[in-house]
């Protein structure tokens, strides 16, 4: 009597859909990632009040030494001269008169730099200005 061993089917992992899964993960992470337009590091002063501003607000960052970074809220920030805030803000306001501007000043920056930027924003007819601060917790 001739007894045969049953043949085992080879096991394998189907990899045909792996590319689809990887592509979906890439798309998911691209859609859910937020991109910041201003990455200037400053030590923010603290405050007790908080106001929400739109995410597409223009950002003016003032470093401790008076270096000014400007972003219109859509493009990456660029270094500009202190005197160029007025024309840059006027250009942004020309496109959208209700655009928010956020001043992100270092806590150690001289007030004259902040005052000069605020005066130029006023001259450019900016209506919505916010100062970025760190949130101090109330106990």
Structural write-up:
This protein is of the alpha/beta class. It has a domain at 46-135: Nucleotidyltransferase, domain 5 (2-Layer Sandwich). It is built from three helices and seven strands; from the N terminus they run αββββαβαββ. It has helices spanning 18-32, 85-95, 111-123; strands at 46-47, 58-62, 68-71, 78-80, 100-105, 128-131, 134-135. A hairpin with a 5-residue loop joins β2 and β3. The radius of gyration is 27 Å and the shape is elongated. The model has no long low-confidence stretch (mean pLDDT 85).
Q: How many alpha or pi helices?
A: 3
| CATH topology title of the domain at 46-135 | Nucleotidyltransferase, domain 5
Along the chain, the helix and strand elements come as HEEEEHEHEE
Rg over alpha carbons:
27 Å
State the end-to-end CA separation: 89 Å
Shape by Cα distribution: elongated
Share of residues in strands: 15-25%
What is the CATH-assigned architecture of the domain at 46-135?
2-Layer Sandwich
Which SSEs are present, and which pair or pack?
Blueprint: H1 18-32, E1 46-47, E2 58-62, E3 68-71, E4 78-80, H2 85-95, E5 100-105, H3 111-123, E6 128-131, E7 134-135
Parallel strand pairs: 1-7, 2-5, 5-6
Antiparallel strand pairs: 2-3, 3-4
Helix pairs in contact: 2-3
Summarize the structure.
With 139 residues, this protein is α/β, with parallel strands linked by helices. Helix content is 28%, strand content 19%.
